[in-house]
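Weekly structure sync, notes
Attendees: PL (lead), two postdocs, one rotation student
Agenda item 3: pending single-chain targets
PL asked that the sequence for the first pending target be pasted directly into the notes so everyone works from the same version. It is reproduced below exactly as submitted, 201 residues in total.
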Amino acid sequence: MKDVTKFINAIAKPQLPGMYNPWSYCNATPDIKADFATFLTQFGDVQNSKIVTQIVINFTAGQYATGDVTGHNHDTNSHAAGIPVGYTDASTAVPASAGFGVPDFGLTLGTDASPTSATLTLTMDHRDTPGQDGEHWVGKNITPTVELTMEIEGIPTSQTAAAIESDLTGWTVDSFGPSDGNQAFDTYALSAHRYFDLVTA
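Predicted structure, written out during the meeting:
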């Protein structure tokens, strides 16, 4: 079983200027929200010398979560951790005790439906500006967004946009609906998004 501290330290260590790190989660008592710590509670801030601009978390039935972390920094006027660049607390988008299998995110499934996969994509719109010499001068974060997609075997009890948004507090439904693939069970898919406020002071 992979040591969780080593896992967290490993997901943001590539060399300047950029990073793209795939990761695989492993914890005998899964809680990816707690284990990601400030990667979620200060999403968009500098972690291990890189400003984190995207985190993808893939959940699959019967497996540990996987994903990737994307970020960057600059040799000139490097981003520093803290308020100036702006960050957000996106931890409420991640269910507690998740990390193995597929969480239901609060959706009322009923007895005839079970999620088979889900993906969370946390994205920070980051803008960099060059100075008069053409080198990096300053950067800031704007519009932190989290997107959710879910695939479900069977048809959940909550299957309308209103019912889904009532269950998934804070989320706005983008698409939803069943699919009859002539399988043993019909399937159902949904996508939704949330906006988060920046901490800038």
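Discussion points:
- The chain has four helices and eight strands.
- Residues 4-195 form one domain.
Action: rotation student to compare against the earlier draft before next sync.
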